[in-house]
């Protein structure tokens, strides 16, 4: 008789722990969002409850959504935009340097051509 009540109590306890565990697991993305001061905390929380009814299909996406945001850098795209701007600026500088070098090479070719033309007849006369 005692074992029957003990088994029933244990069954109820395990069922409650499993039920509570599922709810706690589904609140993990919301807790992450709350800790990071995510701008979409409420949407993540409601979507977590909806995920209970969609057999956990949304939960991985909610976890990703919650972890993408950080208060100090936001979504992180501003840093990417800054890096892209810096790269474009550096490329423009390199293009300018290449243009200057090409002009310098052309000037050197022009100044060296008359000197090389003067040397050619002298070399031809020496050979004869």
TrEMBL record:
Residue span of region Disordered: 105-128
Keywords: Membrane, Transmembrane, Transmembrane helix
InterPro entries the UniProt entry points to: UCP028770
UniProt keyword Cytoplasm present: no
Transmembrane segments: 6-25, 46-66
Biased composition (Polar residues): 110-120
Protein name (record): DUF3302 domain-containing protein
